[in-house]
Amino acid sequence: MAKKVPDAPGRPGHAAARSGRRARAIAAASTAAVALIAVSATASGAVAQGGTAGPGAPERIGAAPRVPAGATVTGATASGTTLHLSVNLAPRDPQSLADFVTAVSTPGNAQYHHYLAKGQFASVFGPTQATVAGVTRALKAAGLAPGKVSPDGLSIPVTATAAQASHAFGTGFHNVRLKDGTTDYLNTSAPSLPANVASSVTGIVGLSSINTITSHHSAVRRTSRHTSARTATPSAVSGRASSAATAAAYTPALCADFTGSGLTDGNDYYSPGKLAGAYGMTSSATAGAGQTVAVFELENVDAGSIAAYQSCVGTNSSVSHVYVDTTEGAGAPATDGSVGVESALDIEDLIGLVPGASIIDYQGPDAGSATDQNVLDVYQRMVTDDQAQVISTSWGECEALESSATASAENTVFAEAAAQGQSVVAASGDDGSSDCYQATGSTAKAVDDPASQPYVTGVGGTTMTTSGSTSTQTAWGNADGGTGGGVSSRWAPVAYQGGVATTTKRAVPDVAALADPAHGYPVYLQDDSQSSTPIPAIVGGTSAAAPTWAAAIVQANAGTACQANGRVGFLNNALYRAARSSYPTDFWDVTSGNNSVHATGYTATAGYDEVTGLGSPREAGLTSALCPVRGTAATGASTFHALSSPKRLLDTRNGTGWGLSSIPTTKPLVAGGTAPVKIEGAGGIPSSGVTAVVLNLTVTGTTGAGSLIAWADGTSKPSTSNLNWTGASQTIAASATVKVAADGVVDLYTSSTTHLIADVQGYYTSGTTGSKYTALTPARLLDTRSKVGISTTSKITNAVVSLKVRGHGGVPTAATSVVLNLTATQTVGGGYLEAYPEGATRPTASNVNWSATGTTIPNLVVVPIGSDGNVSIYVHGTSHVIADVSGYFSTSGSTFDTVTPLRLLDTRQTTALGSGKTLAVQISGRDGIPSTGVKAVVLTVTVTGTTGSGYLTAWADGSSRPTASNLNWTQGKTIANQVIVPVGSDGKVDFYTSSTTNVLADVAGYIS
């Protein structure tokens, strides 16, 4: 469709002109640079998974698109208008795909860096053949002629007229005149398909021709020196165009066109050598050898400009081209000093930094006429070809203006890239915190796609100057442009940013590099109005920062660590892991400046910020950190090691274990966020060989009802829970035995925002040097309500209770630690309990917490026994206290084995357990638990939907119900507690409840 090219509003003091919908602001100037400007608008709509209507009933997929702000409807779209569509399919198991990406990105996981082979995605994670066939039949039945499914199985192409699409998808089409004067079409309602296939479709891309994608480079500064000596003749190879230059000595400081221009390297511009030196990267003619990097482009590239740059820097890098939805020579020629600038910047930056690498230019239709479908096609081709280990894109659009159908399809393609071990980096935009500004004029906070995509590394921009051997960096942000950054409006908080970017959704950017055009990148480009040969110039923008980071990853992949341990692959998991462990060594923290370009944005600060992310690379340290050794998880029968005193590993209130290695944060864990907690090597725990850890987990300052899940890092988040709470302003604790991953980390997830504390009580190792467990019939050692274990019936207030353990309740004199179920009941105000070996210093970690009068709350604790055979229980506040013993550790007994957390019981799926009723649950033979020889099981038991006050008792099936309890509650509460329960000879345990409630039981391991 022809596009009118109207005048476009530029930034203050600068003129702007554009080609099609992609803005351009490229002018010859010897001093200041202006930023590229894009003016357009787009429709936005949400696309969601289908529901469960009858198989023949039509079901809408997502929501109707909105007419863009400032646009007007001009009438119906001509029925014969040709639409190029893709019906995008969900992976057969999206969660399995996400779990696989996590596994291949986690050191120590058995799948670490074992990426999918080329072409394997479709058979492993793509939709099933039955799904593809079903959707194809539905499309044909609707009168369409679907094409062959894509190699990855994720999309079915369809070419149809507007009339055919309207009939097939139950939507009309109308034309809209956009704010900039161009005319596009869009669908009037969400598309529909029969319900039996709609749930397999994530969206239909191409129903709208509105697209605001733009490149993120600045205006061009010409250098004052230009000779014809830099010209070279491009050559071609069969099937792909190629650019080559006569080989010369590698000269990272560049040639006289730049060195003789009167401009200063390291101030007015950065040569490849100076840039590599600033970031600790290798500067050699073979840097990146053996690696392939791909660039995404929506314009032609001038082969002569690439050859001129190669001649100037003395390289002979391989540059080839793949054309997607276009052909060689189609589109506007890269000869006007405007078209081809982005592609020249991307390719030449990579040539200068990784001349030994092969570069593939994936080129789609010109941005001025490209549709969302074209954009998706190029990305999908880059991924399904699987030729490049690193993918770089300097193009994007405001996230808020992109349809959810397109965003969802991109997300799956980028997840596919991560599964194949491809790193994807994207420029974060040049409009600071207001990414929609050029398209709509809005100064509201917004971020750029695809930089905000969860499986993409967003790259922001900095200003950098060098004097001698000293370089300084600040955030890039001024009237001409600034680093894009902020918080996504679409994507939930991501696990890898937990404790680093404490935002309610995905934060952008992840990292940054030089972008300020006033200190920019030397390039050659063709401008026939100025010269018949390529001219030297300086360009900036986050468009330059993205390929710079791509080059850093290429160098890492070519380095010793990655060659030994496998290429980086999905970059973000590795980046944030490195930042948590060795931030000052691996990153150059940018601590000043802001991205307040059009409105007040974000300010750079120490550590992560929504301006420059983690900062710029320190390649020397980062290279090794990105590809750590694989490691092996400790497994098998384990023995226990109690800590003499609990050690606090995490406290989000004061930054303990929270944030970067050198820069803690005190923000709470956000709803849906994940807190990685380092176990091995922390708090007196060995640096290897740990199979599981016993944690006391506490939430405090809760903001609403929620739950907590703990599991081994790098493995699938289980559908279990370890701790539950029912409202705001609560403080509640629960013990959890958690499997430890080979990287020595456990993850903690909360469903609502809260502060979180993790205290370690002990740990298990695969060696035989620790203690073994003996289960006992639960017995009550202390009950201050009835003079059990104490001579009074009064509540305890701010005092210590001495509890006799050895020789009581079946605990022998040889016991070293005891397992107690502590319960606070009839509380007054807030308070807590602390259990510790008698004679030892009282710890600063608590075991049971309450925040209101009338609370009844239990928690399981593992406590070393004092030399006098006693345990001390300190009561802070006022409460009655109950202590029931369920077992002990000593040199004799049984070992512990971890299992993957699994829900063994959930009466919400059947019938609540009635008052005074007993339920037997099979344990042996489930979730990897042996069918015989199991003596006890470690469970997290939760009661919910409680109908009154009550208690729960768990014991071995076939034996008498003990008088001790495991959980106590008051009406309306949801309470969880860890229990170690003997297993009956039939492999079952029994649960008794004194009042009607639902009961859940999640397994963590077993004793045998």
Topology readout:
Blueprint: E1 17-19, E2 22-24, E3 58-60, E4 72-76, E5 82-89, H1 94-104, H2 121-124, H3 129-141, E6 155-161, H4 162-169, E7 173-177, E8 183-187, E9 192-194, H5 195-198, E10 201-205, E11 214-215, E12 220-222, E13 235-237, E14 240-243, H6 256-259, H7 272-278, E15 292-297, H8 303-313, E16 318-323, H9 341-353, E17 358-363, H10 372-385, E18 390-393, E19 395-398, H11 404-419, E20 423-427, H12 437-440, E21 448-449, E22 457-467, E23 470-475, E24 477-478, E25 481-482, E26 486-487, E27 507-508, E28 511-514, E29 521-525, E30 535-539, H13 542-558, H14 560-565, H15 571-586, E31 587-588, E32 616-617, H16 619-626, E33 639-651, E34 674-678, E35 690-700, E36 706-712, E37 723-725, E38 731-739, E39 745-750, E40 755-765, E41 772-783, E42 796-804, E43 817-837, E44 848-850, E45 857-864, E46 870-890, E47 896-906, E48 917-922, E49 936-944, E50 950-956, E51 967-969, E52 975-982, E53 988-993, E54 998-1007
Parallel strand pairs: 15-17, 15-18, 16-17, 18-20, 20-22, 22-28
Antiparallel strand pairs: 1-2, 3-9, 4-7, 5-6, 5-10, 7-8, 11-19, 12-30, 13-14, 14-16, 19-21, 22-23, 24-25, 26-27, 29-30, 31-32, 33-40, 34-39, 35-38, 35-40, 36-37, 36-39, 41-46, 42-46, 43-44, 43-45, 43-46, 47-54, 48-53, 49-52, 49-54, 50-51, 50-53
